[in-house]
Amino acid sequence: MTTLDISDRTALAGQHSATRATRLDRLNPVTRFLLLVLAALPVIISLDWLSAAVMFVGTVLILRACGVPVRRLARRLRPVLLVAPLAAVSMALYGKPGGEVYWHWGLIWVTQRSVTMAIAVVVRILALGVAAVELLGGLDLTATADGLAQICRLPARFVLGALAGLRLAGLFVDDWRTLAQARRARGLGDSGRLRRFATMAFALLVFAIRRGTKLATAMEARGFSSQTAGRRTWARVSRLGLPDAIGWVITAALAALAIGSSLYFGTFSLVTR
Amino acid sequence: MTEAAAVLAQDWGWRYAGRTRWATRRISFSIGTGERVLLLGGSGAGKSTLLSAVNGILGGADEGEEEGQLLVDGRHPSRLHGRVGLVMQDPSSQVILERIGDDVAFGCENLGVPREQIWPRVRAALDAVRLDLPLDHPTSALSGGQQQRLAIAGALAMQDGEDRAPGVLCLDEPTANLDPTGVREVREVISSVVADRRTTLIVVEHRVRIWAELVDRVIVLASGGGLLADGTPSEVFAAHHDELVRAGAWVPGAHSDLRRRRVPSTPPPAILSARDLAIGREPAHLVTSGVRTQIPEGLSTAITGPNGVGKTTLALTLAGLLEPLAGQVEAAASLRPARPARLARNLRRRFDPARPNTWPSRELLTRIGSVFQNPEHQFVEARVRDELAVGLRALGRSHDECARRVDELLAQLHLEQVADANPFTLSGGEKRRLSVGTVLATGPAVIFLDEPTFGQDHNTWTDLVSLITRILEQGCTIVSVTHDEAYLRLLGENIVAMEPAA
Question: Which segments cross the bilayer (chain A) (predicted)?
Answer without folding.
Answer: 33-65, 115-142, 154-173, 193-209, 245-265
